[in-house]
């Protein structure tokens, strides 16, 4: 099983949904999309073994993959939505008690010498956040930025609470299988979710009941692949998801499409799809 399938504990969530051991999930013989993606579900230069199935959250990545001549796709729905069904009460508060903004800084990745650090004007972004948000703001940093003291301290010294949900894992090591549980619990207590780039967290926040916003310096990512099309492509294809005030009905409709809500499957179908049924 490719180690990406373990990211954020996603294979663990699907195993739990299927009624199996979620501490030691069975192998997914293929590639599971691990985050919202503007392409065919993966990095443009991701290597696949021949004949592998590609399990996407939603139909748009499958269609984009087909235009590139790629096959063996199956749409399964985002593991975060399965988790939301499994944990209907986790972090839930009455609607009128939701407060504040959970603000996600665009993050780097575990790229080592190949890149992965973000660079941008944090002072300017902090100023814009303070000018825009009317309730208390909690800044979420991925651990790659949380451990960069100059980044974390910039937001702490600005008066924000700064949190980190943990590590997604890498090469089967360090996976926090409670990562998405912690995010779901947090989302359900906030009124707004915001970020400086349209990202997975925005869609998860909307799915959990938050009002979204996407604004500010999108930052630059060292080693960012131009084949994704950059911010211009996102603005062209998802304009309804950008801005400081976003139409909630439109955002929810787009979120349902991008997370594949209508493709969620019952446990028995998932066991059959992944070949997880016991063999006599």
Which blocks of ≥5 consecutive residues have pLDDT under 50? Answer: none
- Quaternary status: single chain
**Main sheet: strands, sense, barrel:** 5 strands, parallel
The general outline is globular
Estimated helix fraction: 25-40%
CATH topology of the largest domain: Rossmann fold
Number of strands: 10
Q: Give the overall average pLDDT.
A: 92
User: Order of SSEs, N→C?
Assistant: HEEHEHEEHEHHEHEHEEHHH
Largest beta sheet: what is the strand line-up? 7-6-4-8-9
Structural class: alpha/beta
Give the radius of gyration. Answer: 18 Å
Q: For this structure, what is the CATH class of the largest domain?
A: Alpha Beta
What is the domain total for the residues? 2
Terminal CA distance reads: 23 Å
Q: Any idea what the CATH architecture of the largest domain is?
A: 3-Layer(aba) Sandwich
Total helices: the number is 11
- Which strand-content bin applies to the residues? 5-15%
Descriptive account of the structure:
Helices cover 33% and strands 12% of the residues. The protein is of the alpha/beta class. The chain has two domains: 99 residues, no CATH class; 153 residues, Rossmann fold, CATH 3.40.50. The mean pLDDT is 92.
Considering the chains and any ligands shown, give keywords for the structure.
280 residues, alpha/beta, 2 domains, three-stranded parallel beta sheet, 11 helices, 10 strands
Secondary structure layout:
Layout: H1 10-17, E1 30-32, E2 53-56, H2 59-67, E3 73-75, H3 79-86, E4 101-104, E5 118-119, H4 122-132, E6 137-140, H5 143-146, H6 149-157, E7 161-163, H7 179-187, E8 192-195, H8 200-207, E9 211-214, E10 220-221, H9 230-237, H10 248-259, H11 267-273
Parallel strand pairs: 1-2, 2-3, 4-6, 4-8, 6-7, 8-9
Antiparallel strand pairs: 5-10
Helix pairs in contact: 1-3, 8-10
């Amino acid at each position: 099983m490719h180690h990406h399938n373990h990211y954020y504990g996603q294979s663990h969530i699907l195993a739990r949904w299927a009624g199996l051991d979620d501490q030691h999930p069975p192998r997914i013989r293929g590639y599971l999309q691990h985050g919202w993606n503007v392409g065919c579900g993966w990095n443009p230069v991701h290597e696949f073994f021949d004949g592998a199935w590609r399990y996407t959250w939603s139909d748009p990545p499958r269609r984009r993959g087909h235009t590139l001549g790629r096959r063996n796709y199956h749409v399964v729905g985002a593991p975060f939505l399965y988790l939301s069904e499994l944990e209907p009460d986790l972090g839930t508060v009455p609607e009128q008690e939701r407060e504040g903004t959970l603000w996600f800084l665009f993050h780097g990745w575990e790229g080592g010498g190949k890149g992965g650090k973000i660079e941008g004007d944090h002072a300017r972004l902090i100023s814009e956040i303070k000018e825009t948000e009317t309730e208390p703001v909690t800044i979420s940093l991925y651990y790659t930025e949380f451990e960069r003291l100059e980044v974390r301290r910039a937001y702490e010294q600005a008066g924000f609470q700064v949190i980190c949900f943990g590590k997604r894992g890498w090469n089967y090591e360090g996976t926090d299988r409670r990562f998405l549980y912690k995010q779901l619990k947090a989302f359900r207590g906030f009124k707004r979710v915001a970020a400086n780039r349209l990202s997975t967290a925005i869609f998860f926040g909307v799915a959990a009941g938050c009002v979204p916003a996407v604004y500010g310096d999108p930052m630059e990512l060292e080693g960012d692949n131009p084949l994704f099309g950059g911010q211009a492509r996102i603005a062209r294809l998802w304009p309804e998801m950008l801005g400081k005030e976003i139409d909630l009905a439109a955002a929810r409709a787009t979120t349902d499409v991008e997370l594949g809500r209508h493709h969620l499957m019952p446990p028995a179908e998932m066991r059959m799809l992944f070949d997880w049924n016991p063999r006599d």
